[in-house]
Write a structure and sequence with these properties.
The chain has 379 residues and is α+β, with helices and mostly antiparallel strands. Helices cover 53% and strands 15% of the residues. The chain contains 14 helices and ten strands. The protein has a four-stranded mixed beta sheet with strand order 1-4-5-8. A four-stranded antiparallel beta sheet has the order 2-3-7-6, with no helix packed on it. The protein has a two-stranded antiparallel sheet with strand order 9-10. The longest helix is centred in the middle third of the chain and has 37 residues. The chain is globular. The chain binds flavin-adenine dinucleotide. The site of flavin-adenine dinucleotide has 21 residues, from β1, β3 and α13.
């Protein structure tokens, strides 16, 4: 992949804007549980929400690579705001699955930053093994009622809406699942907030549905079952999450490059020691490789090609490379790096969540191994 002149210009504009407007406040916001509504609105004003949506749906018609560039450079400035840019991409499922008169007002609110959408797939007994869903959608007159518990839902404490995957007929396994746009401000939906080390302003919660009514016109209609449609969206989200990790790690690297130039030990800048400079050179190499793997995956998406294998690679490998880099950046700072006064620890905590959300490294390797060796052998 080589970026087009338009993509390069877009990259430069997002990089400049993100660093100017959001970089300074990252650490303060990242430690707080207060949701950054003001910054979300600003992302909306700058056209950085729902980027890939058509212009008539408040989007920018952005190509997949450009969305990746926005995620990466926002993550450099503020990891959690980058997550909001990323999460707004999930809105496209509403346009695909709902009638325009139902989707449009919701999408408008999401693109402006007035409203938030969560995705609720995981359940207490169904994480990696997502086909074991137990949240029940029972057909009733005019729609469905939902009953059961979702868990570990990012944005759960603050979102007004959630895409909920539920089962209508458990005996059919994943084929019996459907997707719904649910108003989670409804009194029948109960939220339990988690105490987390990272993603703190975004929040994560359980959602308990106690006979929550969902009108029939809020079912997301697709070509396949609800679970299959949700899993298909994962190729895109897994790739973008890889770029969130890379953006965050690049910030740690830049801070550390400055530091090793200035900090002296044994009468010289510590950058003179190859134990220091080669460590950074190795991480530079790994991050560059992981970055371009992500853009390769997005370019395949843009070309309409399959990229599940590449997306799974991005999802397990980019956060791993990012965590390795940030960890060494902390070590190269000595005691200063271990302190919470610097953003390095917070970057580590934020990026560590990316290992698990949207599927663990083991599940990604299963996806890759199935393609490499064959599903009939790997299982
Ligand atoms: C920060 C964060 C954000 C999240 N956001 C959301 C969200 O917005 N919406 C949502 O629905 N969910 C979300 N999740 C939940 C996440 O998708 C699940 O936690 C994840 O899929 C793993 O499921 P589990 O926690 O039940 O672990 P389990 O499935 O119980 O897995 C436990 C361990 O066993 C391993 N394992 C399981 N099966 C296999 C196998 N076949 N082969 C090898 N190893 C295996 C796993 O890799 C893992 O290490 C989030 C999680 C985190 C940490």
């Amino acid at each position: 992949v080589i970026l087009t002149p338009e993509q390069e210009a877009f990259e430069e504009s997002v990089r400049t804007l993100a660093r100017r407007e959001f970089s300074n406040g990252y650490l303060r916001r990242a430690r707080s549980e207060e949701f950054p509504w003001e910054e979300l609105h600003r992302l909306g004003e700058h056209g950085l929400l729902c980027l890939s949506l058509p212009a008539e749906n408040s989007g920018q018609d952005a190509d997949a690579v450009s969305v990746g560039l926005a995620c990466e450079h926002l993550a450099y400035a503020d990891f959690n705001l980058a997550y909001l840019c990323f999460a707004s991409e999930l809105t496209s499922a509403l346009l695909r699955g709902l009638a325009p008169e139902i989707a449009d007002p919701v999408v408008k609110g999401l693109a402006s930053g007035d409203r938030l959408l969560a995705v609720a797939l995981t359940e207490p007994q169904a994480g990696s093994d997502a086909a074991q869903l137990q949240v029940q959608a029972t057909p009733v007159e005019g729609g469905f009622t939902l009953r059961g518990e979702k868990t570990s839902i990012t944005l759960g404490p603050h979102a007004q809406h959630a895409i909920v995957v539920a089962t209508v007929d458990r005996s059919l396994g994943s084929k019996g699942t459907r997707r719904f746009l649910v108003d989670i401000e409804d009194a029948t939906v109960h939220r339990q907030r988690f105490e987390d080390p990272g993603f703190r302003p975004l929040g994560r919660s359980g959602l308990i549905f106690v006979d929550t009514f969902v009108p029939a016109h809020r079912e997301l209609v697709g070509n396949a079952s609800g679970l299959s449609e949700q899993l298909a969206d994962f190729d895109y989200t897994r790739t973008l999450l890889g770029l969130l990790a890379i953006g965050a790690a690049r910030r740690a690297m830049d801070i550390t490059v400055e530091w090793v130039r200035d900090r002296e030990a044994f009468g010289q800048a510590i950058a003179r020691f190859q134990g220091v400079s080669f460590t950074l050179a190795e991480h530079d190499t790994h991050l560059e490789a992981a970055r371009w793997l992500c853009y390769r995956a997005l370019a395949l998406r843009a070309a309409g090609r399959r990229y599940s294998r590449e997306a799974a690679m991005c999802k397990w490998w980019a956060p791993r490379m990012a965590l390795n880099a940030i960890n060494d950046c902390i070590v190269l700072h000595g005691h200063v790096g271990w302190s919470m006064e610097m953003p390095l620890q917070q970057l580590l905590l934020d990026v560590s969540g990316l290992q698990i959300g949207d599927g663990t490294p083991q599940i990604q390797k299963l996806v890759i191994a199935r393609q490499l060796i064959g599903r009939e052998v790997v299982g």
